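Please review this one:
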Amino acid sequence: MNFRLAAMKDLPQIKKMYRVIIQQMNKNQIPIWDDIYPCEFFENDIMNNRLYLLQDNTEILSAFALCDSNSGENAVEWKDGSGKALYIDRLGVNTSYCRKGIGSLMLDKAKETAITLSAQYLRLFVVDINTPAIQLYSKTGFTRVKGIYDEVIDSDCILHQYGYELQLY
């Protein structure tokens, strides 16, 4: 398996993988992603060297963005608000590889990458109804912090998100 930064040539396969993930999430009553998010953010992530993927031969198994900031970062109470933090966004696992440890492996890769980028904390937000993701983050050492970030999508849709963090050193 090869963990690396994504390139523009990967974009069609990444979007295809995420469309299947979105279908699976909708089927499982987790309707939090759509045609716009996260797929329309990947090109910008690639251009800014923050989209990482795990590939086996030619197949992409998983991807995530590692960002310097998050729109909800001031809505919750982090352990240390002054320490350098990176935020995991848009983590997705190819549906053919669910429940095979790929999510945990990717979080380990995110930790390693964040450490090389001198971050003290790895943080993320997860929507309150995304129980499988919450279980994964808790299992891999992330701790939920106080507060909720209410991301207003439109007048009919507000995503209630919990903040999770992991101290790296």
Observations:
- The longest strand covers residues 143-154.
- The domain at 2-167 is CATH 3.40.630.30 (Aminopeptidase).
